[in-house]
Amino acid sequence: MTEKRERADQDSPWKEILEAYFPQAMQFFFPQTSALINWELPHQFLDKEFQQIARDAEQGRRYADKLVKVWQHQGEEIWLLIHVEIQAKSEDIFAQRMFSYNLRIFDRFAKPAISLAILCDTDPTWRPNQYSYNYPDTRLNFEFGIVKLQDYQTRWTELEISDNPFATVVMAHLKTQQTTKKPQERKTWKFSLIRRLYEQGLQEKDIRNLYRFIDWVMILPKALEVEFWQEFTQFEQERTMSYITTGERIGYERGREEGKQEGEQSLVLRQLQKRVGDLPEDVRVHVQNLPINQLEELGEALLDFTAIEDLFNWLAANQLE
Residue 16 contacts by C-beta under 8 Å, 6 or more apart in sequence? Predict the structure, then answer.
């Protein structure tokens, strides 16, 4: 996983980690559905089929979706729609959208889908799990499975002792949220979570995959990123292991190699995409044209962005045209 390439929103860390560890994701988040599935048979990601039913999905929101074909123990085929709602705030029409996707799958492919959602927001009261309407002669009640990552805050010990890779994913997500505006604390947790991968005795491939997720979501200011890698390089040397190479470091190191101005532009654009999703072309060009001091200020401010509106507000507040 060392290739250098621009990442689009559809290539988000959530999608990568779901593809790498899909059976473990189902076993961790939705054990009852997982129990229906014969994991000895291969599962298949139906990306083209999902694109056909999601072509008019809302622009600007951040979520990861996977449509997957699996097989039951009795030999029958099942389609699973896994939705990860990355946006850090609730959405009024979320349940309607889940129903719409389910209906489109059935309408286009004549396949009933098990619909499941992973909610990454911070609102403890937002728990949409059904879409319904009721008239005298027509009624509908569509229910779907959800897990709320915030609920794992009270199950931290359970996460620590779990060997499921999604325990690490949830820990990284929760600590990213909890360390907003606390960069030093985030650095400490980032180091701790990556060190934990080595202490679990994971294979090199798994360490790399989970490192990639942690590094992607737990963004640090540049100065702390330098400190982090100095400390982590020493840690690897002490363990006589060198799994994480400079070429894999998504943030500061890669930007620095491209030169001060160009590197800062590239770094800020990558971080913005991680935080708020795809940028309109005019906004992307505008960011590329910012002077270096404003790029650095934006690079610090974006650590607390959760939606593209935060970027627009920052640009307006700083009187940037």
Answer: 209, 212, 213
Tokens 């056909």 found at:
52
By C-alpha distance, which of 187, 235, 239, 190 is closest to 212? 190
Residue 193: band (very low, low, confident or very high) from pLDDT cuts 50, 70, 90: very high
Q: Which residues of 37-52 are buried (b: 16+ CB within 10 A; e: fewer)?
A: beeeeebebbeebbee
Q: CB neighbours (10 Å) of residue 31?
A: 9
The structure tokens 């005298």 sit at 136
Torsion angle (degrees, nearest 10) of CA 130, 135, 138, 141: 10
Could you tell me if 308 and 276 are in contact, meaning their C-beta atoms sit under 8 angstroms apart? yes
**How many angstroms from the chain centroid is the CA of residue 36?**
26
List, in order, residues 6 or more apart from 8 with CB less than 8 Å away. Answer: 273, 278
Please check the confidence at residue 312 and state whether its pLDDT lies above 80. yes
What proportion of the chain, given as a percentage, has pLDDT over 90?
46
User: What tokens does 269 get?
Assistant: 């654009």
Residue 270: in which H helix or E strand, if any?
Answer: helix 260-276
> In terms of DSSP bridges, do strands 130-134 and 139-143 run parallel, antiparallel, or are they unpaired?
antiparallel
High-pLDDT (> 70) share of the chain, %: 84
Sheet with 77-85, side-by-side order of all strands: 44-45, 63-71, 77-85, 113-119, 145-148
Pair 73, 36: CB distance under 8 Å = yes
